[in-house]
Amino acid sequence: MLKLLSWHSPILQTRTQNLNLSHLAPPLLLLCSSLCIKHSSTISDDIYDPPFSHTSKPSKSKSPIKALASEKEQNLPVHSDLPFDFRYSYSETNPSIQPIGFREPPRFSPFGPGRLDRKWTGTSAPAEQFADASEVFKEQNSVLGDPLTEEEIEELVERYRHNDCSRQINIGKGGVTHNMLDDIHNHWKRAEAVRIKCLGVPTLDMDNICFHLEVDKTGGKVIYRHINILLLYRGRNYDPKNRPVIPLMLWNPYPPIYPRLVKNVADGLTFEETKEMRNRGLNSPPLMKLTRNGVYVNVVQRVREAFKTEEVVRLECTYVDTSDCKKIGVKLRDLVPCVPILFKDGQIILWRGKKNGEQDSTS
């Protein structure tokens, strides 16, 4: 204690000289002197006074992730030269069908306010300029390079086709989504191909999945296809540094409201005939039992074969979501083709429609 007081003795003498403390009691005098010592320590400029000198806290530098995020914020809005309209799902939407309403205002863009230089219409963010199809095709071919030999294809298939492959992307009921395109290019940074596993509603039309993956959206090539497993090759001349700019959607937009899929009276039938068809379908044995997130690659062919002998077909979808049942009905209507006449208690009732001979006889 004496040693500490000796450090501040000059300052203490100058402070106490200006004060007349002779009339104070010794305890109070000691308190005043201690306060003077404490106050002098806060303003001391002595570099040899480490216990009482004020040390300022070092300024925290921004983390690399926050610094990168701030740099990206400065470059908004993002511009992308991709020639197609940005949608949440490419394989499970039909641009030709216009919605009759929206569940949220179209001004709420899923890309975030001011983050994209395209306007959100409620269903898509249209491209400003339509690119020439021949130029896009030439650019894709230049990236793909020379076709792979059979030995190279076998090597890639053996490397990426197994279930324990780390380069895998799962496609669920949303189909080929917009953010999935960015995931594919992220895998292509370090791998020549990516394994894609499809489940649920998209497996009804695997040709549509392949079209949006290789021809229309990514520029890659499907070199292997087995039931619901695809292998998408990036190309010989693929350069990760020149990958396209894909702005990410920050949330899943609410789907718009479309016209009713099932009408009260089916086209070509009366009300009584429609009611009789529905009852017949509910009392008939199920053609197939569909599971949740199953593989439906053979459903279309089975329904087509059943319509050769039956007029009404029932699909049992007890454990399938209601929204998925309606998506299945829409795809079967376009692929078989047929007429969905009832969705009830996890049951899909399909009517094959009137044949040409029946239409001629009724007319």
UniProtKB/TrEMBL annotation:
Alphabetical keyword list: mRNA processing, mRNA splicing, Repeat, Ribonucleoprotein, RNA-binding, Transit peptide
Transmembrane residue ranges: none
Task: Show the Pfam families listed in the entry.
Answer: CRS1_YhbY
Q: Does the keyword GTP-binding apply?
A: no
- Which PROSITE patterns does the annotation name? CRM (PS51295)
Q: Which Gene3D superfamilies does the UniProt record give?
A: YhbY-like
Q: Which domain of life is it from?
A: Eukaryota
**Cellular component annotations (GO), alphabetically ordered:** ribonucleoprotein complex
User: Where is composition skewed (Low complexity) in this entry?
Assistant: 50-66
Q: Which InterPro entries match?
A: CAF1P_plant, RNA-binding_CRM, YhbY-like_sf
Q: Where is this region: Disordered?
A: 48-74
The answer to whether UniProt assigns keyword RNA-binding to this entry is yes
What GO molecular functions are on record for this protein?
RNA binding
Signal peptide extent: none
Q: Where is the CRM domain?
A: 146-245, 267-363
Q: Which GO terms describe its biological process?
A: Group II intron splicing; mRNA processing
| Name under which the protein is recorded | CRM domain-containing protein
Natural source organism: Nelumbo nucifera
